[in-house]
Amino acid sequence: MKFRSLRQIGFTDYAPISSFFPSSAVAMGAQKKGSSRVTEDAEELARNPLQAILLADSFTTKFRPITLERPKVLLPLVNVPMIDYTLAWLESAGVEEVFIFCCAHSRQVMDYLESSGWHKQPNFTVAMIESNNSISAGDALRLIYERNVIHGDFVLVSGDTVSNMSLTHAVKEHKERRKKDNNAVMTMVIKKSKPSPVIHQSRLGTDELFMAIDPDTKQLLCYEERGEHPRGAISLENSLLADNPSISLHNDKQDCYIDICSQEVLSLFTDNFDYQHLRRHFVKGLLVDDIMGYKIFTHEIHSSYAARIDNYRSYDTISKDIIQRWTYPFVPDVRFSANCTTKLEREGMYKAPEIQQSRSAHIGPFTVIGKGTRIGDDSRITHSVIGEGCTIGSNVSIVGSYIWNNVTIEDGCELRHAIVCDGVIIKAAATLEPGVVLSFKVVIGREFVVPAYSKVSLFQQPTAQDSDEELEYADSSSGAIDPLVLIYQGSYMHLINSFLLAEQLGPGGAGFIWSACDGGCEEEWRHSVAPIPTDQLAKALLAIEEDSEIVKVSDSALTPSGELEPGSDDDDSDNMDDSNVDTVDFEKEAEATFLRAAQDNIAVDDLILEMNSLRLSYNKSAGDCTGALFYPMMKLALESPHNTAVELQKNVASVVSKWHKLFEVLAKEVDDQIELIMKFEEMCLESTKEFAPIFSQILYLLYEREIIGEEAILRWDDERKDADESDRVFVKQSEKFIQWLREADEEED
């Protein structure tokens, strides 16, 4: 299939962004129109074109059993191989030469790149470097150094990276630092991302990350993952504090795993064979080495997108971000690789050509349907991705799941938050509970229930762990069946295993259910595509409340911004600014959390737990949560279709009916309820004036649903008695209702 590069089409034949998407996402899309090129001196650029090293091996086992048969970079992400997102971004960002290193399943990667047409792009060269015995990123970089193909500064990424950031500023900063200091060997791209204080991981499912950064120079001084410090406490060397008059400590940064490197990085790996892992060995090794004096700096991005697919949870998160267009122009309805362009419809639905959908079938919001898929009567699919050539029977329910190509799902099946690989057959009335992963060509028997977080494969689970934890693929000593033998040997192998396969997965089933990994069930739910279970969140919250030994830092040593300044005095104005910034960030994150819950149809109890963890991380009260959540709830009603005030009032009644329990729990105090009324007044006067004519009707609705109590309404009325007329607009509008409350109160007395 022939396709055009991003530069050839100039981003001009893209479909417009639908108005229902967030404004910041639209802005991001606008920023990306027209490929950006790194602005450098013409002679230097001609001498050293911008190069990149793309690691097509993750050197981990996190995507097993899937990666026993297919390399991770070729796994579909919203129906496009992961590596295509990385290559399309590098090409659009001005990289001219990419060296792709692959080891496991290298033949599959090479065949795909040859057939996809990436090697035919003008001004964009893609070359393969193959190895059969590298077991780490360190080995890969040492081999690349031996090939002598890198001739200047280069971009280092993995083939599971999704981004739309411009490299211009990051490369420019790196080069300018190098001119002043030859020891500045790396610039690491980071982005703000506040982790959950309850489960201590980011929305990508990665461990909470602690960084110490010089706020003036942006030099990285410390890099520690919480997983290496279970109690959550890290210690800084006295020399670090002595040598750096000002240090900012952060636990709200996400490592994007995009590095701008000098040539010395490759030679450092060659000189130090202990360097295997990029972060755990190389970065931390340079930070503690005070002899050579090499330095690493950071470049923080704000409006752009950058993330790496590290585990199943980040696979789910990044898929949703793509569907919601945060990664524009790398979205389903824009052709940026050999992908089949889909049509964007209302509520974030994408449909490819040649789909056969029953009239009674329902396709919900934020769902992608691939080419040639057939959907039967009364089936419901929402917040999911369906691949090409799938057959979905009648009365099937699919929620929050990822169905790859040529999958058959028979009548009456139920799938919730699962991954189903190519060629899988799910027989009638079977159920996949949350977190299930079905590898290639597995068969689930009729009416069989696959337990939550199960991984099922035609491979038997290795009987012993691989000798190196970084190894992505199983070798002959690991106990895994050779995929060629299992898949292609024919009926004889199936006859040998038929009894065991059927016994595990129901009548007519084929596959092996793998047992939990070494980390047990906790690791499964932490890194799953399924929402975090309510009971796990509840346990984590209870542990926080009971733990009185949480590390506390003295106020005199640590400012609210996280900046350590030995001997400095408190600055009230700075603290005030930091508090205001935190409030804005909290409100934005609360709004995003609520909208995500509404889109994903998350249970109210789960949202309450998530909001409690969010307010703890920002040190906010339940009342702060109430105000932050009320706005997106009312906005949801406003954005629903309506032509009259009566229809708008019905929309409000609908959303309040669904989410009233959230506010009952968070707005228990009378003062919080008064704050909510005042927040509503402010909205009616400024951002959502459409509600102003029906203020009193909505106030009564909030009272009826027990979100706002009688005492709060009467006290609000009392507080407004001496106010200016302009501040009593809504009190006057609600006079009859308030009078009714007072008379009812007197009758009770």
TrEMBL record:
Residues 553-580 are annotated as: Disordered. Its main location: cytoplasm. Keywords: Cytoplasm, Initiation factor, Protein biosynthesis. One of its GO terms (cellular component) is cytosol. It comes from the Eukaryota. InterPro entries: ARM-type_fold, eIF-2B_epsilon_N, eIF2B_epsilon, LbH_EIF2B3/5, NTP_transferase_dom, Nucleotide-diphossugar_trans, Trimer_LpxA-like_sf, W2_domain. Gene3D superfamilies: 1.25.40.180, Hexapeptide repeat proteins, Spore Coat Polysaccharide Biosynthesis Protein SpsA, Chain A. One of its GO terms (molecular function) is guanyl-nucleotide exchange factor activity. Residues 580-749 form the W2 domain. Belongs to the eIF-2B gamma/epsilon subunits family. PANTHER family: TRANSLATION INITIATION FACTOR EIF-2B SUBUNIT EPSILON. Component of the translation initiation factor 2B (eIF2B) complex which is a heterodecamer of two sets of five different subunits: alpha, beta, gamma, delta and epsilon. Subunits alpha, beta and delta comprise a regulatory subcomplex and subunits epsilon and gamma comprise a catalytic subcomplex. Within the complex, the hexameric regulatory complex resides at the center, with the two heterodimeric catalytic subcomplexes bound on opposite sides. This is Translation initiation factor eIF2B subunit epsilon. It comes from Linum tenue.
